[in-house]
Amino acid sequence: MQIFNALVDGMTWILNWLYSLTVSISVPSYGIAIILLTIIIKMVLYPLTKKQMKSMLAMQQLQPKLKEIQKKYKDKDPQKMQQKTMELYKKYNINPLAGCLPLLVQMPILIALYRSLFEFPYINEAHASFIWVPSLSSGDPYFLLPVLAAVTTYLQSKMTTTASDPTQRMMLYMMPVFIGYISSIVPAGLALYWVAFNVVGSIQQYFINKQGTVIKEEASGR
């Protein structure tokens, strides 16, 4: 509990420090402070994010081979199918859980930001608004940020989704709806964080995808 409280206090201090930075450049805004916080976190998490993206690209490459294994063993020997699948992952140096790592790491950050925003000690409450949002500690009255959170989640997921995988197709549509709903019931500052996180993540994904064959071959261990 003390560790969590320290994390919340640390988040509060960082946001107020970033706000002071916006004041020093004559654009005082807690909204900009949250966007700067998002960029910093994305930079820190980039090694994990890159590993996740490479794993997703490699998984796309292996879809034909995975389908062959499923077709051969799914009905006859499910245990054998799991064994062969894991052997394939090992052969191409793929960790199927790598996609969860960035999310797991940032969960404490999301919770700390959520708790911090509820009773945030704004240095200047006049700068706690952001464009159309009266206060980043309350919900978005027009639900624009939740919609943006859902749309950007969909667009980023679309960049890494395998069209032939039914599970990924289902998550492509379910996850944006879930994120949009959550963003509608939490402080607008958290929804803004998620939108900025998706936008920065999409930019990173674009450049990684642009490397194309090089990244895919590296990811598959060729």
How does this structure look, described?
The protein has 222 residues and is mainly α. The chain has one domain. Helices cover 74% and strands 0% of the residues. The chain starts with a helix and ends with a helix. The model is unreliable at 218-222 (pLDDT under 50).
> What's the gyration radius in Å?
20 Å
| CA distance, first residue to last residue | 46 Å
Instruction: Tell me the domain tally.
Output: 1
Query: Could you tell me the mean pLDDT?
Result: 82
Beta fraction? under 5%
How is the quaternary structure best described? single chain
**Overall strand count:** 0
Spans where pLDDT lies below 50 across 5 or more residues? 218-222
- List SSEs in N-to-C order: HHHHHHHH
Task: Provide a quick synopsis of the model.
By secondary structure, the protein is mostly helical. It has helices at 2-24, 30-73, 78-91, 101-118, 144-158, 166-185, 188-210, 213-219.
SSE blueprint and pairings:
Layout: H1 2-24, H2 30-73, H3 78-91, H4 101-118, H5 144-158, H6 166-185, H7 188-210, H8 213-219
